[in-house]
Amino acid sequence: MTRRLAEVAKKVGVSEATVSRVLNGKPGVSESTRQAVLSALDVLGYERPTQLRGERARLVGLVLPELQNPIFPAFAEVIGGALAQLGLTPVLCTQTTGGVSEADYVELLLQQQVSGVVFAGGLYAQADAPHDHYRLLADRKIPVVLVNASIEDLGFPGVSCDDAVAVEQAWRHLASLGHERIGLVLGPADHVPSARKLAAAQAVGELPEEHVARAMFSIEGGHAAASRLIDRGVTGIICASDPLALGAIRAARRKGLDVPSQVSVVGYDDSAFMNCTEPPLTTVRQPIEAMGRAAVELLNTQINGGFVTREELLFEPELVVRGSTAPPTRS
Q1: How far is residue 86's CA from residue 116's CA, in Å, rounded to a whole number?
Q2: How far apart are CA 185 and CA 213, in angstroms?
Q3: Which CATH class is domain 163-286?
Q4: What is the reported pLDDT for 201?
Q5: Are 317 and 165 in contact (CB under 8 A)?
Q6: CB atoms within 10 A of CB 22
Q7: What is this structure's pTM?
Q8: Given the DSSP bridges, would you call strands 212-214 and 236-239 parallel, antiparallel or unpaired?
Q9: What's the CA dihedral at 43, 56, 122, 65 to 10 degrees?
Q10: pLDDT given at position 50
Q11: In whole numbers, what is the pLDDT of the chain averaged over residues?
Q12: Residue-level pLDDT at 42
């Protein structure tokens, strides 16, 4: 019992005495705190007291495209924790190849009568992907928040890391080191964040078409795309994700090239363990904590009937310089 009180109190950010008052039905606790404690019980896997089991927790779908890229578990931790503090229970929905689709998850969430849905990465960012399930949520007036850039006309509020600023930071860093042949490894052509990164790179420096390579978001995709760029003489590679950057490093090494003295690589996200790679990865950090909490605030405002702007909220990234970038070796 004592352990349960301590864990729930830590999760919600209140005292153990407050948790005890909620569990024992005592007065003196605000409704928001009470709901947060009940939600934390659900999240931590504890049974509610018998007298409280009839109250259904308010559910919020948290839809992610994958968990292999560490950036998505990081978003899930921040968003899930912020939801729990508001008395909302996150329902994690993760897609797998050949498994349950994003549209299927939306159907399941609607059946569960969720209070809202947060999408952190998904088909909303791809212009050529199906979007009928988003319109279904809009028709049902379900509160929705999108994390990172979406296609136009979906009409949902969103929070995004500023892709243009991210590429400008990475490009200027490589240029300051003396790199003149800089290339980009991006996602598919219809991927909105990748399109924004491409436009920013074209605005800030000279970028021939052959210095742009497309890939699926994986280490293998980064390896294949970066290999093509290296063969075309590129010495500095900016990647649209950290796994793509790890693939680029692997591509350089498979060609017998040193990173960073012969090929420099910059990632994007600053996801977990990027400071533990060899060499440690220079990358552009997304402000995950600020973005996740802003997404939850937007969602909660909608759930409570308040007005939220449909304009995208842009958050400033931060270049983190580590060991994968250096001045190019002059031949």
Answers
A1: 13
A2: 5
A3: alpha beta
A4: 98
A5: yes
A6: 23
A7: 0.82
A8: unpaired
A9: 40
A10: 58
A11: 92
A12: 72
Instruction: Transcribe 205-221 into DSSP letters.
Output: S---GGGEEE--SSHHH
Hey, what amino acid is at 314?
Answer: L
Distance CA 218, CA 241 (A): 9
Q: Which two tokens stand for residue 186?
A: 């991006």
Largest Cα span, the chain: 76
Token pair recorded at residue 309: 């702007």
In sequence order, the 6+-apart residues with CB closer than 8 A to the CB of 274 are 242, 267, 280, 281, 283, 322
Q: What digits encode the pLDDT tens for the residues 305-327?
A: 999 988 899 999 999 999 999 99
Q: How far apart are the first and last CA of the chain?
A: 69
Q: What span, in angstroms and rounded, lies between the C-alpha atoms of 219 and 201? A: 22
Domain ranges of the chain: 2-52, 59-159+296-313, 163-286
Strand partners, 94: 64
We find that the CATH architecture of domain 59-159+296-313 is 3-Layer(aba) Sandwich (3.40)
For residue range 92-143, list pLDDT tens digits in order.
Answer: 999 876 778 999 999 999 888 899 999 999 999 999 999 999 999 999 999 9
* Residue 225 near residue 215, CB atoms below 8 Å: yes
Q: Do domains 2-52 and 163-286 have the same CATH topology?
A: no
Side chain identity at 184, as an amino acid letter? L
Contact criterion met (CB below 8 Å) for 41 and 77 = no
What would the mean pLDDT of 2-30 be, rounded to a whole number?
85
pLDDT 10s digits, 164-192: 999 999 999 999 999 999 999 999 999 99
The rounded distance, in Å, linking the Cα atoms of 197 and 118 is 24
Give the homologous superfamily in CATH for domain 2-52. Answer: lambda repressor-like DNA-binding domains (1.10.260.40)
Q: Which long-range contacts (CB under 8 A, 24 or more apart) does 23-30 make?
A: 23/49, 23/52, 24/49, 25/49, 25/51, 25/52
